[in-house]
């Protein structure tokens, strides 16, 4: 059994909109820890927020159809870990990280990895949809961990989110935030201790996988425990994802691209990122106190994370913000924006080390963003939720999941080769049966 740590808890949170395309694990792995400070060899917890994790059909149907997409990130973490340890000339352990959980609500996913030696006492999870009829084409998924530290159990809440798109949809994004706060109810996750809904405190039906081995000593919690809302915690909350806030309420006009940001350290230049950052919708909304109340964000010093043009326009360049010889290739029909963000609460117990964008990945028009922090025990703040938890959140999520299943089946049959094969086979089989029965009459 792991010993509670007296050191701060190092957390590395990465968010990435994968544009419904599987990542290349080896390519992302080479840059995965680029925002991790040199003083931290490896963090205790790795959280990955994934938006547009897969096309709609596998995302809504879930289960085995999503496994390849999650597995690619698991492979990426393993490769990134091996690379960092070798770079520091440190022995590589095969079981350096265990996958604690991989959860999704529709197209938004959350993965949490725990380093060997970190003692997790309990886990709660939550999910909320913000799409049509509360389905999960947009929404949030969260995990709340009870991590044993020297002063007791420290609660850490990790939330992955994807809000409404489009420049003009500022009010829709505010409504999505309200829906998330009202419907993100955290309950004890009984699926982590073994197969199905087995209780982690029981040895029945246990699987011999990493998750079971990690959690089979978890402290049982009452299944009738009252659900907790997003703000109902004594520890820090990390909220990240494609929040979709833009730098304009309308699309660019002809000629606007001439003043899009480019790498420069001249703050007086019209191309300096600060000129566009001053128009950031999320900063304005937070200043008005209508979204992400009580959350903080580290100062942004990196280039906009959206929307990049791909090789059809020019080579993908990942120049730093002050590289005068670099160039950023932007899509012409969108203002460059900082869509991908990570915010946090409990500033007194959270020490931010780095907040930065990773290099462009050829599979997406978004750049990944990473936040490296240390969490110390104590320094609690009492947070007031802007909206109460919806008492019917579980029932409404269940109904939304049924709608997702129907949509997923329809999209699977209509848009995938496997589905079309099944559909054609069913039609041919039905017609053959009809002709056979007619022949018998």
UniProtKB/TrEMBL annotation:
GO BP: phosphatidylinositol dephosphorylation
Highest taxon, organism lineage: Eukaryota
GO molecular function, one term: phosphatidylinositol-4,5-bisphosphate 5-phosphatase activity
Inositol polyphosphate-related phosphatase domain ranges (all copies): 7-381
Name the UniProt record assigns to this protein: Putative inositol 5-phosphatase
Organism (species): Microthyrium microscopicum
């Amino acid at each position: 059994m792991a010993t509670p740590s007296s050191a701060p808890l190092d957390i590395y949170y990465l968010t990435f909109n994968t544009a419904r395309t599987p990542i290349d694990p080896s390519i992302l792995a080479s840059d995965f820890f680029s925002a991790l400070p040199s003083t931290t060899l490896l963090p205790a917890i790795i959280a990955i927020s994934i938006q547009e994790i897969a096309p709609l059909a596998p995302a809504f149907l879930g289960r085995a159809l999503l496994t390849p997409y999650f597995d690619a990130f698991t492979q990426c973490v393993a490769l990134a870990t091996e690379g960092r340890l070798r770079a520091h000339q440190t022995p590589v352990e095969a079981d350096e990280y265990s996958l604690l959980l991989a959860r999704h609500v529709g197209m938004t996913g959350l993965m949490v990895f725990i380093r060997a030696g970190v003692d997790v006492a309990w886990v709660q999870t939550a999910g909320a949809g913000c799409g049509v009829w509360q389905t999960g084409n947009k929404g949030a998924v969260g995990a709340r961990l009870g991590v044993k530290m020297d002063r007791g159990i420290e609660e850490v809440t990790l939330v992955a989110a994807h809000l409404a798109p489009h420049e003009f949809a500022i009010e829709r994004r505010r409504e999505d935030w309200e829906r998330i706060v009202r419907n993100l109810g955290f309950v004890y996750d009984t699926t982590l201790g073994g197969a199905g809904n087995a209780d982690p405190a029981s040895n029945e039906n246990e699987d011999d996988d990493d998750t079971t081995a990690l959690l089979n000593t978890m402290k049982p919690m009452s299944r009738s425990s009252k659900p907790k809302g997003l703000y109902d915690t004594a520890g820090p909350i990390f909220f990240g994802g494609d929040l979709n806030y833009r730098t304009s309420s309308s699309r660019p006009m002809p000629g606007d691209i001439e003043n899009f940001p480019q790498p420069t350290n001249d703050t007086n230049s019209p191309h300096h990122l600060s000129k566009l950052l001053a128009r950031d919708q999320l900063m304005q909304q937070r200043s008005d106190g209508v979204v992400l109340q009580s959350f903080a964000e580290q100062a942004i010093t990196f280039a906009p994370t959206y929307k990049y043009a791909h090789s059809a326009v020019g080579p993908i360049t990942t120049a730093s913000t002050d590289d005068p010889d670099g160039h950023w290739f932007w899509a012409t029909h969108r203002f460059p924006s900082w869509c991908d963000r990570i915010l946090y609460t409990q500033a007194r117990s959270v020490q931010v080390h780095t907040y930065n964008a990773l290099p462009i990945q050829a599979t997406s028009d978004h750049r990944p963003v990473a936040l490296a922090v240390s969490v110390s025990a104590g320094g609690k703040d009492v947070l007031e939720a802007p909206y109460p938890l919806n008492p019917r959140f579980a029932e409404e999520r269940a109904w939304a999941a049924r709608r997702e299943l129907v949509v997923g089946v329809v999209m699977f049959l209509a848009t995938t080769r496997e589905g079309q094969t099944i559909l054609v086979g069913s039609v041919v089989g039905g017609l053959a049966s009809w002709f056979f029965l007619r022949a018998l009459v």
